[in-house]
Every structure is written in C-alpha cells, then in structure tokens.
Amino acid sequence: MKLRCAVLDDFQQVATTVADWSPIAGDVDVVSIPRHFAAEDELAAALEDFDIVVTLRERVAFPAGLLARLPRLKLLVASGMRNSVIDFEAARRHGVTVCGTASSSTPPVELTWALLLGLARGIVPEATALREGGPWQSTVGADLHGRRLGLLGLGKIGGRVAQVGLAFGMEVVAWSRNLTRERADEVGATLAASKEELLATSDFVSVHLALGDRTRGLLGAAELGLMRPTGYLINTSRAAIVDQDALLAALHAGTIAGAGIDVFDIEPLPADHPMRTAPRLLATPHLGYVTDANYRTYYGQAVEDIQAYLAGSPVRLLG
After folding, report:
1. pLDDT tens-digit profile of 199-229?
2. Do you find a cis peptide bond into 71, omega within 30 degrees of 0?
C-alpha cells in the first residue's frame, strides 16, 4: 500500500508542477491542499490519514497536542532549515522524522525593495487613480538618494538590502544587539549608536531580525514614536517584532508616513482584520519567499527528503 503525502497551503496550486515528484510516485500518493486550516481540530481531521506532510515555512504550527493526534504521521518536511512552530521534542517522542530544505535569501531582499519603492513613490494610489480615471498625479514622491536607510539587523538579508541602498546613493546605518563595527564596515554601513538613534534619524527603517525572546515586541509605541513623521517602516521579517496595535495606531494617527508590511500576527489575514483597511499601509500577503526559484528548491528538495527517508537515510534533519 502506498504512503499518503499532504502538501499544505499550496495556495497557488503549483507544488506538484514546479518540481518533479515522479521519483516517489511508485511509493507515495501526493495530495495538494490549497486551503489553510486555522483551527487545530480541523487540521487534525484533515491530516489523520497521511503518513507524510510537507508544510510551507512556518505557516502551520505542529505543537505536541497536534502531533499526538496524528499517529499515522512519520515524516514532516518543512521548507527552510529553521522552524519555530514545530515541537521537535514531541516529534521525536511520537516517532516523527522532521526534515528541511534550502531557502534563498534573495526573494525577501527583492520584496523589501518592492515595498520600499512602492511606498516612496506612491505606486499603488497613483496606479489605481490612473486606471480608475482619478486625478493625474496626486502624490509627491520621497527621494531615496541622500536619505538615510536604517536597518534593524544586518545578517544575510539585511546585508544585501544595505548594498542595494548604497547603490541608490543612500546613507545606510544599522543596529542589532550583537552587531559589530566590523560587520557594518564589511557591507558599507555605519553602526548606529543605539536602536533609538537609528529610529529617530532614519528616513526609512527596515526590519531584518530573527524572531526570539529579545526581539519580540522590539518596536512598540515608544519606539515608533521616535520615528520621523516623514519616515517609513518596512517589515518583511516577522510580525511579532513590531507591536501590531502600536503600528496600527501610528498609521491611523499619521505619526509615520507609511509602512510596507509582508508579515502579520494572523496568516492568512481574516477578512475583517484591521490591517486590511489601515491607512498609509502597503501590504502584501507574506510573499517574501514566494518566487519560482524558491518554490523549485522547496518542493524539489522535499521530494529528495522523502526519497532519503524511504531509503532509510534521512537528510537535512531538523531539531
């Protein structure tokens, strides 16, 4: 009897076509699931007959309670090599092998700049007005050249964002708790004296930190209050780094010029979520990792992970 594999959150319904699943076709039936299950009961019911699950990034949590309800599950494949929503200890207790895949940092760098440029030049309101017969020019764009780009985090993604900023002729400053002057110098950025100085002096602030105990809620009402009223915030990292209520309040009050956001406290966003109607907000539905090349890597390596597991030699083990 063939094993059954569920591919979760295949919103675009491309998971089974961007990669070649034929190497496991003789052993595994693959089922693409294009919808998201928000409730654990619903998810447990949907997955109870599957031996293998392929999950996209950190979209779906696999806590101990859920894993206990999936006695048939033997292999869990998560795209990327880090995952904060899988209980690895519980997976081991229940005999579930967890594997990952590679993931490129290029797509979130590119989306960061798409959001920043879209905000700076009013692309959405201007394009909408042009199509709908609205006013011919209603915004005045914010310049990039000569302006200050403040980066919270200067790792692989933040470093590449910095390089693009420098190419635009921006002054790039960066801060994180562990950032060294040597690392800042390496990418041509200036080490900010403090988080507060960065927020108060930057024209654009972009978040590129990993979510953890020290970064959760890093930007609250007090921190957002330090930003210039002409300043823009971009977050393609993790929603919980920025206090969502404080951000909404700043957008409604106009204490910042705008925000470009790709990550949210609840995903997918409910239809009545206040982020859907917030002013001064350019929002995208967590597209940072969603590109053809990344998907080919995710699902191509998921197939390799399944092959290796079936051969008794799992690869890219997580946890």
Report:
1. 999 999 999 999 999 999 999 999 999 999 9
2. no
Catalytic residues: 238, 267, 286
> Residue 89 phi/psi, 5° resolution?
-65, -45
CA count, 13 A, side-chain hemisphere, 115: 32
Distance CA 51, CA 71 (A): 9
Q: Which residues, 6+ apart, have CB-to-CB distance to 131 below 8 Å?
A: none
Exposure string of 108-146, with b = 16+ CB inside 10 Å and e = fewer, is bbbbbbbbbbbbbebbeebeebeeeeeeeeeeeebebee
Say if residues 103 and 294 touch (Cβ distance below 8 Å): yes
* Residues 67-81 pLDDT 10s: 999 999 999 999 999
Domains and CATH numbers, the chain: 3-104+291-310 (3.40.50.720), 106-283 (3.40.50.720)
Q: How far is CA 317 from the centre of its chain?
A: 22
pTM: 0.94
Q: Dihedral, CA atoms, 56, 60, 63, 66, nearest 10 degrees?
A: -110
106-145 pLDDT, tens digit each: 999 999 999 999 999 999 999 999 999 999 999 999 999 9
